[in-house]
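Hi R.,

Here's the chain you asked about this morning:
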Amino acid sequence: MSAVLFEQRGPIAWITLNRPQAKNTMNAEVFVRLAEAWDEVRNNDSIRVAVLTASGEEDFCCGGDLGGVIPLWTGARQPENEIEEKLLADPMIMDKVMLKGEPLFKPVIAAINGRALGGGCEILQATDIRVAAEHAVFGLPEPKSGIVPGAGSMVRLARQLPYAHAMKLLLTAEPITADTARQIGLISDVVPAAVLHSHVEALAERVADNAPLALQAIKKTVLESHTLPWADAFQLEMEQAGAVMMSRDAREGPKAFKEKRKPQFTGQ
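And the predicted structure, written out as tokens:
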């Protein structure tokens, strides 16, 4: 079975890391298939929201499968199959997987079913809404091994969290509980493991019910204005708002409200 499962349910894409026997660590197949999954979400107009989750009950993702991937990248061993050849053929695949390169403006929700360590914690920072099971644990242990969390955390974390909380997580390399992660703002909600997926499914449906152009304009503005001067940020906001106001969906929303029915948004 594939190391990454992809299922589209209506307007929602479910992307599932599927290596529970290996703590859902990222091997060559995970890198390749996850990059492909993000491309499908980005380019498929019928997809409005993506959910990222994992198989099993213990681990969301415990980082990279270093024993399998690092020797490939360093040339210590040669690729043994088509997947490994694809990994080596794309020098930007890490940026694609961690959504550091080409932006993805569709909403992404994380359903965190267990430990999110190293790269597993880093990829969460590329998502927008994060819901964790009560037993989930988060951490960036790389400094304990003499390396750094270089898949986005050194840039993203201090922009997403208060500085002191971000630096404590980065510099101590110690794990934190789901409750602590929620308190500092790393995740949105904590729920019992038994209801994690039903809770996230209902949340994704609520998001998907909204106008897709509006959702994408909101995310684009938030991401791209984050480090702009105030005047430039407000200019970007005005441009995005103006573009959405000219859409058919912007006319459909008030019309549906007046007619007391659910709006039929088309993304146009």
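The mean pLDDT is 94.

Let me know if you need anything else.
M.
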